[in-house]
Design brief:
Number of helices: 0
Largest sheet: 5 strands, antiparallel
Number of strands: 13
Helix content: under 10%
Strand content: 35-45%
Strand order of the largest sheet: 8-7-6-10-12
Order of helices and strands: EEEEEEEEEEEEE
Oligomer: single chain
Distance between the termini: 81 Å
Length: 153
């Protein structure tokens, strides 16, 4: 077997004793096996098109109510717990779940906001839907408690 590097940097092996090895490049490895009538392996070119992605974030504002915002296609499932700013004196808890996700650029993402029991959707999600573009993408929603205590008044 003879192995050498060609001008383009790919390794090339030629057949000896009925066995052919393959080209090895950074992109692909071709397997080897017995052959009968070939003296070299021809490269197989595979074209893979990669779609660019961008981040999309759901922001739940501090309306003091609780709820969840989800996306279609799936990726965002962000929950904000209700909070009473005059209650325990503790700061509002951070949202939980997936509040940011990657989507292919050009994907249209639709959101659904669902209030927890004792809360309602005061505003949003806005914008809805979002067509993902390169750069910063977002939507936001505000949940308020049923008792009228809401930062949006």
């Amino acid at each position: 077997m003879s192995v050498r590097k060609n001008r383009k940097g790919a390794w090339r092996a030629t057949r000896t004793s009925g066995v052919v090895t393959a080209f090895v490049t950074a992109a692909a490895i071709v397997s080897v096996g017995p052959v009968q009538a070939q003296s070299t392996v021809q490269p197989v070119r595979v074209q893979v098109q990669v779609q660019p992605t961008a981040q999309l974030s759901a922001w739940v504002s501090d309306g003091w109510g609780g709820g969840t915002i989800t996306s279609q296609p799936a990726g965002i499932n962000c929950h904000q717990e209700a909070w009473d700013p005059y209650g325990s004196g503790e700061p509002q808890p951070d949202p939980t779940g997936a509040c940011t996700a990657s989507f292919e650029v050009g994907t249209t993402v639709t959101f659904t906001a669902t209030a927890d029991p004792g809360s309602y959707v005061n505003f949003g999600p806005v914008p809805n839907p979002v067509t993902v573009q390169s750069g910063y993408n977002f939507t936001w929603v505000m949940f308020c408690p049923d008792d009228g205590l809401c930062s949006a008044g």
